[in-house]
Design goal:
Blueprint (H helix, E strand, L loop, with lengths): L1 E9 H10 L8 E2 L5 E2 L7 E4 L2 H15 L3 E9 L4 E3 L5 H12 L2 H6 L5 H14 L4 E6 L3 E6 L2 H4 E10 L1 H4 L2
Parallel strand pairs: 6-7
Antiparallel strand pairs: 1-5, 2-3, 4-8, 5-9, 7-8
Length: 170
């Protein structure tokens, strides 16, 4: 299953990604404006189908790293992704993965696990079940893609657009 996706990052990271045709940074980041990027489905490369949302992510990276923002376009190829939608969503996946990792009774009595722990648990659960990533439909138009094997799943990475924060401030 081949999809075109976008990822918003900083200029320095984009130059490295284009040169080497691979991503090296994980998703867990805290930006200076209080926004955090958490690996909800575990460590992997997170991308979106929406150019505008990718540009917003690029803005966060640009602001935090004091450099221009860049949106890269790439192809991502999945062999067996878990597809999340209205019928089976993130909440049910979290419950299934955490129940698998612990006992049901323990899950009920525990306080909410950290997002990092549940993300790691989800990835472990999905890999055990033979999935190579996640395609998460958020509404009718927005789709998140998570690649667990980016070096073999992501290719044809190209520069789509770049901007300077100073150009955007009025």
């Amino acid at each position: 299953m081949k999809r075109t996706s976008y990822r918003g990052i900083s200029l320095r990271e984009a130059e490295h990604v284009i040169r080497h045709q691979k991503y090296v940074r994980s998703e867990s980041r805290v930006f200076c404006n209080g926004i955090t990027a958490k690996p909800v489905y575990g460590q992997g490369v997170y991308m979106v189908n929406d150019l505008e949302l990718a540009a917003q992510y690029a803005f966060c990276h640009a602001e935090a790293e004091l450099q221009p923002g860049v949106v890269l376009k790439q192809e991502v190829v999945f062999e067996n992704p878990l597809i999340l939608n209205r019928n089976y969503g993130e909440k049910q996946l979290k419950l299934d993965a955490w129940t698998w990792k612990t006992s049901s009774a323990l899950f009920e009595s525990m306080s909410q696990p950290s997002s990092e722990r549940i993300g790691d648990c989800i990835k472990e659960y999905l890999l055990l079940k033979g999935y190579d990533g996640v395609i998460s439909h958020l509404g009718d138009e927005l789709i998140h893609y998570v690649s667990y094997f980016p070096e073999k799943q992501i290719g044809k990475i190209s520069w789509h657009l770049s901007f300077s924060i100073q150009d955007l401030i009025v």
